[in-house]
Amino acid sequence: MVLHILALFFVVAIYTDFNFSVDELFTDKNLALSIAVLLITNVSAIIIKVFITQWNPESKKENDDSLAKAGRYIGILERLFVFIFVITNHWEAIGFLLAAKSVFRFGDLTSSKDRKLTEYILIGTLLSFGLAILIGILYSYVVHFI
Fold first, then answer.
1. How far apart are CA 80 and CA 113, in angstroms?
2. Top-ranked range on mean pLDDT: pick from 14-23, 44-53, 76-85, 99-108
3. Where are the alpha helices (DSSP H) in the chain?
4. C-alpha to C-alpha distance for 110 and 122, rounded to whole angstroms
5. Local confidence band at 92 (pLDDT 50, 70, 90 cut-offs)
6. How distant is the alpha carbon of residue 127 from its chain centre?
7. SS3 at position 76
8. Which of 145, 49, 143, 128 has its CA nearest to residue 83?
9. 29-67 pLDDT per residue, tens
10. DSSP secondary structure string for all residues of 63-75
11. Tally of CB atoms within 10 A around 78
12. How far apart are alpha carbons 95 and 113 in whole angstroms?
């Protein structure tokens, strides 16, 4: 992948007046964005996992037909989407994402008739969205003053 990106830079540099400086890559805004993405992807996942493991429902382990680590990747993607929606000031898209996730989860939760699993998923979702919104607001605040 790195070689692919380098090849693209090389071709662009040959055919255009593209001047790339490493100093332009390491700006305060890019550093703030890197920290925010790291907080959203890794740190938030750890915080959510630590917080909700105390309620790990038993029914989750009985008939687990899900993909390996699918919940982790879904959580990372939803937090990234929410973060992007916050920093681009598209708050209505967060509501759409939450509604879409609810529609997809509704069938699973109603068929299982397991209140603990429903509460477990709801707590995880609200934590995930809350952390992404908080990090997005903090990022927007920090970038405003840079």
1. 30
2. 76-85
3. 2-15, 22-25, 28-38, 44-52, 59-62, 70-87, 91-112, 115-145
4. 13
5. very high
6. 12
7. helix
8. 128
9. 999 999 999 999 999 999 999 998 888 766 545 555 667
10. S--SPTTHHHHHH
11. 20
12. 25
Q: Which is more confidently placed, 16 or 142?
A: 142
- Please provide the average confidence, as pLDDT, over all residues in the chain: 86
Q: Locate tokens 């609200």: which residue?
A: 126
Q: How is residue 73 written in tokens?
A: 């990747």
Q: What's CA 131's distance to the chain center, in Å?
A: 9
The token pair at 83 is 């973060």
Whether the Cβ atoms of residue 116 and residue 57 lie closer than 8 Å to each other? yes
The pair phi, psi for residue 88, each rounded to 5°, is -95, 5
pTM, rounded to two decimals: 0.78
C-alpha–C-alpha distance, residues 28 and 13, integer Å: 25
CA-based nearest residue to 33, from 84, 70, 96: 84
